[in-house]
Amino acid sequence: RRHSFPTRRSSDLMAANTSITPRATSPIYRKRFGFMPNPAVAREIAGLDAQADCQRIVFLLTAYEFPWDITRSLEIALFYTYASDTVSKLLDRTREFKDHGQKRYDDTRLLIAHFMESGWDGDVGSRALARINQTHGNYRIPQDDFLFVLWTFIEFPMRWTADFSWRPMTAHEKNAWFNFWCEIGRRMGLVGIPDSKPAFDTFVQDYSHRHFVPAEASARVADATLDIIRGWLPAPLHGLVAPAVSSLIDEPAFLAAVHLQPAPALMQKAVTGSLKALARLKRVCVIGGYPVMLADAPNRTYPGNRYEVEALKPVHLQRREDQA
Q1: What does pTM read for this prediction?
Q2: 245 band by pLDDT with thresholds 50, 70 and 90
Q3: Residue 189 and residue 121: Cα distance in Å, rounded?
Q4: Who's near 53: CB < 8 A, 6+ residues apart?
Q5: CA pair distance 118, 21, nearest whole angstrom
Q6: DSSP for 62-108, written as a single string
Q7: What is the dihedral of CA 258, 264, 269, 270, to 10 degrees?
Q8: Is 26 helix (H, G, I), strand (E, B) or coil?
Q9: pLDDT tier at 25 (50, 70, 90 boundaries)?
Q10: Which residues pair with 27 in a beta bridge?
Q11: Could you give the CA distance from residue 10 to residue 60 in angstroms, rounded to a whole number?
């Protein structure tokens, strides 16, 4: 596989590939002893610059260190945005989650994963970012809403790896993660992005005081998203989906905004305990691919991953284009 990240070479390189650009080649690692995490990945990350090399660091985090965890944490991040009355009002009006939920989920997942995998400099990553900007250009979205959503993509992977992953992100990795997403925000045309994580946290605290209010639109979008998850499970498990989500986001203001009940204590203990047990297993055994690449992931909407990045757009926008 080919990646175009600028990087320093690791002395523990397990295998190497050729970059698609004239820049430095990037190593590909293999599981240690065929089943364990390779510590050379973390050593490479530690030797990179958190600003200049943040694209490579994000790739290493998402492909090797935390692929499953980052996917889950970004799903939780997306769900958390529904607590905002203005974010949910737009999502509810388009009805994309209600009428085309699985496609809406897959399109969002694929676009984000593409620029995390190839970076904003990569061909596919830059096309994915352009597709996102083209979609957003069809709506009047307040700048504060953009910043709030951007913050969730920074915050929740940090929070999840601290609570439920086989190891937490290091301070260096958090810095690189923050820098990566701030640059994504700038490439989306956002202005006023706070220059530090604590400053961003303060902004979101003020934002949540103003926008985390119980709203029917928030409840409808949240329930439509829960329906997507229910569709992945056997019918007898459908009743566990809402309390499982409440177990993972147990903030009273959030739950009230989206009309969810707090999870029973036993349910919360079961959910968090299961995730922590899985984390302990992953300390000694890598589950799944290494690296985990987007092309290898199952895809419900696009079997065989047959799609064009430019076609990953809301159905109502595609219909408008077809009519035009």
Answers
A1: 0.91
A2: very high
A3: 16
A4: 5, 6, 7, 8, 176
A5: 12
A6: IIIISHHHHHHHHHHHHHHGGGBHHHHHHHHHHTHHHHSHHHHHHHH
A7: -90
A8: coil
A9: low
A10: 16
A11: 13
> 90 near 139, Cβ under 8 Å?
yes
Residue with the two structure tokens 């922590």: 276
For residue 208, the number of C-alpha atoms closer than 13 Å in the C-beta half-sphere is 20
241 pLDDT more than 50: yes
Which stretches of 81-196 are DSSP H helices? 85-94, 96-99, 101-118, 123-136, 143-164, 171-187
Q: How far is C-alpha 162 from the chain's CA centre? A: 16
| Greater model confidence, 228 or 324 | 228
CA dist 121 and 59 (Å) reads 12
- What tokens does 149 get? 């959503």
The size of the chain, in residues, is 324
Nearest-Å Rg of the Cα atoms of the chain is 20
- What are residue 32's DSSP bridge partners? 36
Q: Residue 283 corresponds to which tokens in the numbers above?
A: 């300390």
Alpha-carbon gap, residue 92 to 95, rounded angstroms: 5
**Token couple for 63:** 């492909």
pLDDT band at 129 (very low <50, low <70, confident <90, very high): very high
Q: Which residues pair with 212 in a beta bridge?
A: 84
